[in-house]
Amino acid sequence: MSTKRIIIASGNEGKIREIREIMKDPEVEIVSMKAAGVDIDIVEDGSTFEENALIKAKAVWNVCKGCVLADDSGLEVDYLNKEPGIYSARYLGEDTPYSIKNAKIIERLDGVPKEKRTGRFVCAVAAVLPDGKEVVVRATMEGYIGYEERGTNGFGYDPIFRPEGYECSSGELPMEEKNEISHRGKAFRLIWSEIQDLL
Predict the structure, then answer these.
(1) Which CATH architecture has domain 4-198?
(2) For the chain, what are the domain ranges?
(3) What is the pLDDT of residues 30-87, one digit of tens each?
(4) 2 or 171, which is more confident
(5) Cα–Cα distance measured from residue 97 to residue 124, given in angstroms and rounded to the nearest whole number
(6) Residues 6+ apart with CB under 8 A from 157
(7) Is 95 marked active-site?
(8) CB atoms within 10 A of CB 32
């Protein structure tokens, strides 16, 4: 059995670790773009999660021509007109710690009742296959924004997000459970089901 190699167009180690957990397959080797020797700056200037995911996947594919997956994900808060949305990673500045980003969102929702604190994590995943074929999928995890940071599992906005039907934050969920219900878990399982027979 030959090992299928998939390059992830990301340098985010937390994300790569999560993807390896989600796509557990002994026949698949998942490597970061850095490990694949790709060192490029990618300008994500799309207007949707899907466009940005495809921009990243195509940029890396142009360098290495293998199977490349890229995701663009973020948090939409309904009360804040779906901010930070596609700017989730760049919200308040790219190098700003998430503890500050999370505190700002909680501050902006000060006094807003639970039923109006709804939001979702969105994840779009784009695949560019060795022959250049493109596949794009999207998945979400619905929930609401909590009143304080809780939990150290996960990363990013996980500590302030309460998944629908849960009393805890997604930062308090064990990784395996989180991957079952998360936007990224759903999106990567979906893309894998669509591309595995094409590799």
Answers:
(1) Alpha-Beta Complex (3.90)
(2) 4-198
(3) 999 999 999 999 999 999 999 999 999 999 999 998 999 999 999 999 999 999 999 9
(4) 171
(5) 23
(6) 75, 88, 98, 101, 102, 105, 121
(7) no
(8) 17
Owner of token pair 């060795």:
130
Of the residues 25, 39, 45, 72, only one is catalytic, namely 72
Contact 123, 139 (CB under 8 A): yes
Identify the pLDDT of residue 187: 97
- 73: closest CA among 56, 96, 58, 95? 56
Angle subtended by helix axes 13-22 and 183-195, to nearest 10: 60
Q: What is the pLDDT of residue 2?
A: 56
pLDDT at res. 103: 98
Over residues 8-23, the mean pLDDT reads 87
